[in-house]
Design a protein that fits this description.
- The protein has 214 residues and is an all-alpha fold.
- It folds into two domains: 1-58, Arc Repressor Mutant, subunit A; 61-212, Tetracycline Repressor, domain 2 (Orthogonal Bundle).
- The protein contains eight helices and no strands.
- It has helices at 2-28, 40-47, 61-88, 93-107, 109-118, 124-149, 153-174, 179-212.
- Helix 4 packs across helix 5 (109-118) and helix 7 runs antiparallel to helix 8 (179-212).
Length: 214
């Protein structure tokens, strides 16, 4: 019984230290310093452990980075679910989605920086992991559109990919904006996404009319 209790305490401590390493790495990210610039020694120091102890939790810095990407992707998916809950309570779909997205960036700028910067980074493992996480984001949006607008899957897939690309580009700017500029960006982003949505709707119905007259 004592051994089980001791093992449980050790497992909790190990998880706590692993969490501290992830947090320390996120803390050290900024607009000037990307993940590739992080030092294992500095990350371990901020986490409160010796550099040699780092390897009890991660094989190397790349494995730590991939854990950070996984966490970032989970945060993104939670973002979409929050937006859906807000939409269910009423209000504009685009207004709610964009506001939720910008709030996410405001509260998690370093998470967004990791996804944004490493998406085009030098590590193929990072690029693949981030591409997968963004694809999860797109897939959830496609599922929502499939249930909401009645258009074919491939229309919604193209629409979702365009929307996510536009939103991420806008999000990159939002990180450094003050409140006034950010509000203007929100308005512009809603307008751009509305154009994509209406363009998809128009194109689909134009194709439908064309098919009927063949």
């Amino acid at each position: 019984m004592k051994n089980n209790k001791t093992g449980g305490v050790r497992a909790l401590q190990k998880e706590k230290t692993r969490r501290s390493l992830i947090d320390a790495a996120f803390n050290q990210l900024n607009a000037e310093q990307g993940f590739a610039s992080l030092s294992l020694r500095e990350v371990a120091r901020e986490a409160g452990i010796a550099a040699t102890s780092f390897y009890r939790h991660f094989r190397d810095m790349d494995e730590l980075g991939l854990a950070m990407v996984d966490e970032s992707g989970l945060t993104l998916r939670q973002l979409l679910r929050q937006a859906r809950k807000r939409i269910e309570k009423g209000g504009s779909v685009l207004q709610t989605s964009v506001t939720t997205f910008i709030e996410f960036i405001d509260k998690n700028p370093k998470v967004f920086l990791l996804l944004l910067r490493e998406k085009a980074g030098t590590s193929s493992a990072f690029r693949s992991a981030i591409a997968r996480e963004i694809q999860h984001f797109i897939v959830e949006l496609v599922d929502y559109l499939n249930n909401a607008n009645g258009m074919p899957h491939h229309y919604n897939e193209a629409q979702a990919e365009a929307m996510v690309t536009i939103a991420f580009n806008a999000g990159a700017e939002a990180i450094d904006f003050d409140e006034i500029k950010r509000q203007k960006l929100i308005e512009d982003l809603i307008f751009q996404l509305r154009m994509v949505s209406r363009g998809a709707y128009y194109l689909y119905h134009k194709e439908q009319i064309k098919a009927e007259h063949r």
